[in-house]
Amino acid sequence: MSAYVQVLGANDYSQLTSQVEERATQPKVINISPINPLSIKQVACGAYYVMILTDNNELYGCGRNDQGELGISNIPESITTFTKIPFHKNIKFIAANYFTSFIVTTDNQIYWSGNQPNTKNHILLDTFEKLRIEKHLIIEKIETSSASIHCLLETYCNKEGYSLKGFGYATAYGYKGDHSELSTINDIHIRGPFQILSAGGNHSIMLTADGRLFGGGSNTNGQVNGKAVDTYFPIQELEVPFSINLIRDIKSGEYFTLYALQTGVVYIVGGYDTKEFRILRQHIDLPFKIGCGYGFSIILDCNGYVFTDLSKSEFIKTDYRLDMTSINQIICGKSFAYFYYQKNESITKHFSRLFKCCLKESKLTDITIQL
């Protein structure tokens, strides 16, 4: 088994490490020492920084830290190599938004570090600050993104079942007024379980396991429902120009939302030009992956071809290819991306055979292998 990391895009604050100069114009393999790539459990990207969680419960960070994003006080500016973050509780999963990092522990507590906009909280400590959350809740998911200043939480308890909560910039999930303090965790009145949660710059999209699609927050560019308005609106059920049952993934940027469909089509809604729903790419060979940062999108098809507007103003097919059979995660920051590969030679060999067979029989919809 082998594993490695490639990076692409801007390197403003050494978020791609000091091995990259100002920009990686093509995917570049980087050395993430002292991390063993085979031990990577999760990667999270903020606007200008990266966190990596390993399977032995170690947390590392690289990139911007002058807002306390990585919670390492003795290195107040940019961190140019992956450096261990002092955190001594068992970690369930991690998340990162524009200037703020989040850790969810196995005892279902949330810790944060950074500078959450509109709260005037700014900490530079050798630890993460604890958020208050009801003790009886089990945290199933935390969703935010490098474009966001809010978080969505899927929780579970025996009494209420699955529910949804939000904190941070509350208008992004439909609350009126200033509910932006991290200490305030608000109820979003939609019942789960949830198949997909997606947090954009100032909007939120949710797909329930029973096939209902909801959205709310800022819709100034039509990023929620394709009908641009100057006001925020509460979470409501959405209508889209395709069957909701075909949705396989949803990603959100600052002013837009991407929908990946099982039919090999990716829709975009919102953005800086046309506001309504439109096809970004179609006839994509399956399976494929999507990702997006603050203002760019990435599509990776099953043949390893990359389509993106990360380096150019138009969405194009690039002249490089990636190894789709072993990509485990695509994680995007504001204007950069990390590609994490984990390859088991035996599994890859069988995957390739199955892939070719299904393509020949036109029966392939999606294959996901979690190593």
Helix content bin: under 10%
What's the order of the H and E elements? EEEEEEEEEEEEEEEEEEEEEEEEEEEEH
Number of H/I helices = 1
Tell me the overall shape. Answer: globular
Describe this protein's structure:
The protein is mostly beta strands and 371 residues long. The chain is built from one helix and 28 strands. The protein has one helix at residues 345-361, and strands spanning 2-10, 23-30, 40-45, 49-54, 59-63, 79-84, 91-96, 100-105, 110-114, 129-130, 138-143, 150-157, 161-168, 186-191, 194-199, 203-208, 213-217, 233-237, 247-252, 256-261, 266-270, 278-281, 289-292, 297-300, 305-308, 316-321, 327-332, 336-343. The longest helix has 17 residues, at 345-361.
Which tags fit this structure?
28 strands, mainly beta, 5% helix, 371 residues, globular, four-stranded antiparallel β-sheet
